[in-house]
Amino acid sequence: MGRTYIRAQFKPINSEYSRNLARKRQSIIRGSLNKLFVDGYPPVPKIRDKIEQWTGCSIFELSEHLRRGPFVTMLDFRVKESWHLDHVFPVSLIPDSEIFLAHYYKNLEALPPSINMYKSNMRPMNEHTKQRFQTWQEFVEWIDRDPTELRRK
């Protein structure tokens, strides 16, 4: 017979743990994108499935999304040091309860390292109102809208 393990108590996930997990996920996503861009092959299926779960799209859709960014002409995706995987809305400003939504593909962009360092943890600008988003929830509501709807108003 097999052993049965019983957990007596579940520990709540604290802020530091969830932030570290978010950093680890970002590292896995970036490493997998580097393998795709530099070596030309996708990650193993286990990692590919995790990335699809975290980002809401496939690794190939994510790479296409990153290649449509505003700074794409300044980037050489085949050189690891020439680009950073950036969060449009900074992870440091996302509430702990929603930290796992930080890697949604619409919140990711490829930036040159110098611009990413300058940007630091600035909130993104709402192109419609020309003001910075004040909360994560406000940003989430905006990215889920149809961009053509925003242009009509």
Describe this protein's structure.
- The protein has helices spanning 15-39, 45-55, 59-67, 113-119, 136-143, 147-152; strands spanning 84-87, 108-111, 125-126, 131-132.
- It is mainly alpha-helical.
- It has a two-stranded antiparallel sheet. A two-stranded antiparallel sheet has the order 3-4.
- The protein starts with 14 loop residues before the first helix and ends with a helix.
- Residues 1-13 and 146-153 have low confidence and may be disordered.
The Rg value, from CA coordinates, equals 18 Å
Number of helices: 6
Q: What is the 3D shape?
A: globular
What structural class do you assign from the helix and strand content?
A: mainly alpha
Helices and strands, in order, run as HHHEEHEEHH
Average pLDDT reading: 80
Low-pLDDT regions? 1-13, 146-153
* Main sheet summary: 2 strands, antiparallel
Give a quick summary of the entry.
It contains six helices and four strands. The protein has helices spanning 15-39, 45-55, 59-67, 113-119, 136-143, 147-152; strands at residues 84-87, 108-111, 125-126, 131-132.
Write the layout of secondary structure elements.
Elements: H1 15-39, H2 45-55, H3 59-67, E1 84-87, E2 108-111, H4 113-119, E3 125-126, E4 131-132, H5 136-143, H6 147-152
Antiparallel strand pairs: 1-2, 3-4
Helix pairs in contact: 1-2
Features:
single chain, 153 residues, mainly alpha, two-stranded antiparallel ribbon, two-stranded antiparallel sheet, 6 helices, 8% strand, disordered N terminus
